[in-house]
Sequence to fold (433 residues):
Amino acid sequence: MKRITIIILTCLLTTMATMAQTGLNINRLFDGRYKKAAGATEIIVTGVQAREIGLTVYHSLSVTDKNQAELVEGLVVKDGAHAVDKEVEYRNGQLYYGFYTMKKSKRDNRYIFYLNQNLARKSPKNIVTLIYMEGLATQDEIKKLIRK
Amino acid sequence: MKKIVLLFATMLAIAQAQAAAPDTVTVIEQPKQVIITETPTGSLIKVIGSKEKDDYSFTYTMQHSGNDTVHTSQSTDWELNLPFKKSSNKEYHWSVVCSGLYIGAGLGTSFNLVNNSFNWGILNIASLNYNTLHGQQFSIGVGYDNKRFSLKRPNCFVMDEETEIVDTDSYPEGTIDNSSVLSVRTIQFPLQFQQFFGKKFHITLAGTMNWNVYAKCNTHYKVNKTHHDVSYRGIKQNKLTFDVFGALSYNRIGIYCRYSPCSVFKKGFGPEIKNTWMMGVAIAL
Fold:
């Protein structure tokens, strides 16, 4: 019974978090395909924990597979084309990082952040990170949140 | 290289905007070399070679007006700080742990001359655990246990040194401050099962095999202002006994109950102290 409850709650949570990205191309990446994939880490946070940092949805995906990185970048760039505000940097013809502010969803701001740490100058890492965030937090607050 | 083209296009766009002229874009595919020369009066951009022609050459000169400021910047790496990190507390099937410190008192024994009893120990000084990762854990370990049985007054333990038989007798006439205690020290080998309900609550059931390595009777009394302290060692305790241990824990603090069905003394070497019950507090189970 406990397991069934956990499974139902997880499904509900995933559905709710996935619905948050409705209309975006990156939605394809959050369909659960990376949940058990090797070299991928997916984190979904909603509710109290997310509210503590001014968000209603926090959904991140980190992948180490280079082939997957290309897919992620492609989808991010597609969504980025519809951003109302964006901050991007390309390195060697590849998207190094992108911080996109998307059209609001009701009263919540929506952000997509992408970072390809393979292209870092100091200490490159084989990690591509995509974060989708939704909430009242401003751009500056989001940057403070995710930048060291 | 794309960045250089972008830079070039941007500078071109700025210059054109200042001149209020229509936009023009020059795209040079795969240039071999791009030389940007900045002087106090302006910038010179020279592109050599292109995808189609190795000897291709393009020069662009831009003069600064008096109010212009040229910014040259190079972005630094983005140091990412994810607010939610996946827990690194991985659970493993196998582990070796120390667990189960308990202290308690007796609830009663079949030997009705026992006044009270006391018990403490560590269920597992070291144990090998197998966790199913589905809420159950099995373990086998080694621990320590100590039991003390105190006799009801006016009875005390006495031992016949020759036969090594322990019996009970009355204290001499006129004794005060008397006590007579049997203590047993045990190395125990628990076989344990734990069932977890959520992260904090769990029950523990264990059967222990006890190797009773040491037993001692100590009788203490005072007669006519003279203290008498008599210890009987070498008593014949049962070397091997078995107990049942159960506990309910919340957040690793709980209550335990221990039942010892076996007699402390070997048959014929002492009173039959058995079917003892102990209950108390257990931590870190």
User: Anything to note?
Assistant: Confidence is low (pLDDT under 50) at residues 15-23, 65-73 of chain B.
